[in-house]
Amino acid sequence: xxxxxxxxxxxxxxxxxxxxxxxxxxxxxxxxxxxxxxxxxxxxxxxxxxxxxxxxxxxxxxxxxxxxxxxxxxxxxxxxxxxxxxxxxxxxxxxxxxxx
Length: 100
Known about the structure:
The protein is of the alpha+beta class. The protein has helices at residues 9-25, 29-46, 92-99, and strands at residues 4-7, 52-55, 58-62, 68-76, 79-88.
């Protein structure tokens, strides 16, 4: 089955803010973060139910090499992955509950 992917504006802001933070620390580190996010979203879209459900239908994918999780919901009608947050692990539990 093919799932479409939608990224909520809050999640887009998470990605942008992390990109800027990493890029200011080291040239191209933000780009590497962004590529890791893209690869992670691709994996999620191909394997939507493979990640742990952490809270009321919300699943989390751990991004490789960065301390961030991608929080998402699987919607079955239509087949869609909804990215609700890309959040640093130090902020994850509080931030994700506010979005739900």
